[in-house]
Amino acid sequence: MMKAKVAINGYGTIGKRVADAVAAQDDMEITGVVKTRPSFEARIAQEKGYDLYTTARENIEQFKKSDIKVSGTLDDLLDKADIVIDATPGDIGAEYKELYNKHGIKAIWQGGEEHELAGFSFNSEANYKEAIGRDFARVVSCNTTGLVRVLYALDTAYGIRKARVTLMRRAADPNDIKTGPINALVPDPIKLPSHHGPDVNSILPHVDVTTMAVKTSTTLMHLHALNIELKDTPGEDAIINLFKERPRIRLVSSSDRIKSTAEAMEFAKDMGRPRGDVWENVVWKDSISISKGELYFFQAIHQEADVVPENVDAIRAMLELERDGARSIAKTNKILGI
Ligand code: NAD
Fold it and tell me: What is the pLDDT of residues 54-103, one digit of tens each?
């Protein structure tokens, strides 16, 4: 079988993870990854066997000086691939749309870009079918992916009357030495709505959801506190069973000594996950409560990882490698070890 050829433009936190997840699949391969300048990440990409490209011809000399082999520029790479994953920093990806159009290549952007750029926002469980054969898509952000996974499951099973969510966001990724706050909690934005609710609506337009967000002095994970009024009123056990059946929700329990995002991350490391990645939503089973007819629970989201399997599924849908979303999800999960 011919493997689909995937280019990665922006080989940082998300790009390098998507590259490894793509390389692990049997129906797609990495044609090349793009770095702007030499770095340890470029060197490791080379050691992994990925062909390295750079954004502009004038950068090639810098790579040569650092003894890192470069196969050409982004322009050269785009001619060789079937699809490009754009994992450049937020708002930069939009600048590349014209270039992708020029090369007639399909493109997947990330959550830092606006929905309108691709005209279609993706989540594997909620709208795989609508992605089939598309030229452009945007995999929604880590927080939105985490929210859509649970809200789609609940809405499909019971109908959501309204969802109210407070997101306690990690302020920066672990490798980020520039972003704060170091010692503060920052309501962000100060006034409703945070962008997460409207972003959920780019995939689930009919769900009544409002979100508030607070930046917190941590790098590990985001924590969501959810309060949802459902049209039917299931018991707590029914919700637990619903989440158990979903492909990308992992139930954990404080009685198993996972009481925090720190222990959830340690759990992933102990499982031998690459980079300690948690690709699933981590839902605390013992937080699931029905009170006065409304559902409450906590979930943690590993911001560096949860969008990675979604990118793999989006590639499969857009290149029509698999028409059945559930089968793509099962395949991605099996190969990654979810
Ligand atoms: P990052 O800063 O870790 O990586 C971006 C990479 O792109 C870096 O290697 C950088 O050198 C490179 N780059 C910068 N300018 C470039 C250019 N003009 N052309 C090509 N490459 C360039 O960023 P990230 O956290 O991986 O975020 C990438 C995208 O994924 C953003 O849209 C972001 O919003 C989204 N996202 C991030 C997270 C997260 O928590 N880190 C989670 C989900 C989605």
Answer: 999 999 999 999 999 999 999 999 999 999 999 999 999 999 999 999 99
CA dist., res. 12 & res. 30, Å (int) = 15
**Angstrom distance (rounded) from CA 132 to CA 14:** 23
Q: Which residues contact 181 (CB under 8 A, 6 or more apart)?
A: 171, 215, 217
Question: What is the best residue among 88, 117, 149 to mutate for testing ligand 1's pocket, by most ligand atoms within 8 Å of CB?
Answer: 88
Residues 6+ apart with CB under 8 A from 177: none
Q: Which residues line ligand 1 (CB under 6 A)?
A: 9-15, 34, 36, 55, 87-90, 92, 110-113, 141-142, 173, 303-304, 307
Q: Which helix (H) or strand (E) holds 116?
A: helix 115-118
Instruction: Give 173 Cα–ligand 1 centroid separation in angstroms.
Output: 11
| Whole-prediction pTM | 0.98
Q: Are 103 and 73 in contact (CB under 8 A)?
A: no
Express each pLDDT in 260-270 by its tens digit.
999 999 999 99
Which two tokens mark 306?
């949860």
The one catalytic residue in 142, 282, 315, 336 is 142
Using alpha carbons only, how large is the chain's radius of gyration in Å? 20
Angle at 78 between CA 75 and CA 81, to 5 degrees: 155
Residue 241 Cα, ligand 1 centroid: separation in angstroms?
Answer: 36
